[in-house]
Amino acid sequence: MDVLDFISAQQHKLILDTLGTVKYISQGIFTTLFYSILAAFFGIILGSLLAILRYTNNTLLVLVVKVYTSVIRGTPFLLQLFFIYFALPGLLKINIPIFVAGIAALSINSAAYVAEIVRGGIDSVDKGQVEAAKSLSIPYFSMMLDIILPQALKSILPSLINEVINLIKESAVIGVIGVADLMRRAQIIAAEKYDFITPLCIAGIIYYLLIYIIARFGIMVEKKLK
Q1: Range of the domain at 134
Q2: What pLDDT score does 14 carry?
Q3: Contact 105/85 with Cβ under 8 angstroms?
Q4: pLDDT at residue 65 above 80?
Q5: Whole-angstrom distance, CA of residue 117 vs CA of residue 106
Q6: What total number of domains does the chain contain?
Q7: 1, 35, 176, 201: least CB-packed within 10 angstroms?
């Protein structure tokens, strides 16, 4: 084998290794999106409910919502994840699967931010809408779900899309408890090959493309609503 054949073989091996790395890491796309989208779904539902409860006349409920949003927004997501996966099983004497812990932590964290987003959207709706609904004796929850929230959606949609994007980025943290997402797979390759640059760059590119696609989709939906 001459020098040229050796170089060619080395290049061929490098290409195959890189393609194998890309394939292995990209297999985590579904896991990342699955956790993020499911957490966004639960987070939006719970966050909207919290925002609605914030405007009730029940002082205790309002206080609970304020404390919840303050604590969740004021503590690191990693701490919340560790508390749910490591501390909570010991307190409740139950076993919490990785999947449940990951979804629960992401959803609970997202709900606190969604609650503030929805609250801002509700505040942007003309107060006359609420007064008109009350004068017609429309129940509180029906008023919020059928009249106020649909009007608030247009103003909060960009913020909700940003929250989904933040969830995709924050989902990289759940790899620390064993979830084989994009970041976790990149770390595995890096540890096996003692090469952190290649797998991290590949993971970064995939994250960027996912977020770019979702951001463009959000812009399209926003234009449709307008």
Answers
A1: 23-224
A2: 57
A3: yes
A4: yes
A5: 16
A6: 1
A7: 1
Please tell me the pTM assigned to this model.
Answer: 0.88
**AA letter at 19:** L
pLDDT one-digit tens code per residue, 168-190: 999 999 999 988 899 999 999 99
Query: Quick one: CA torsion of 198, 200, 202, 206, rounded to 10 degrees?
Result: 180
Judge contact between 199 and 22, C-beta under 8 A.
no
Nearest one of 51, 43, 164, 179 to 108, comparing CA atoms: 43
The domain that contains 115 carries what CATH number?
Answer: 1.10.3720.10
- 97, part of any domain: yes
DSSP assignments along 177-218, one per residue:
GT--SHHHHHHHHHHHHT--HHHHHHHHHHHHHHHHHHHHHH
User: CA-CA distances (angstroms) from residue 49 to 53, 164, 173, 203, 218?
Assistant: 6, 18, 26, 35, 23
- For residue 15, being part of any structural domain is answered with no
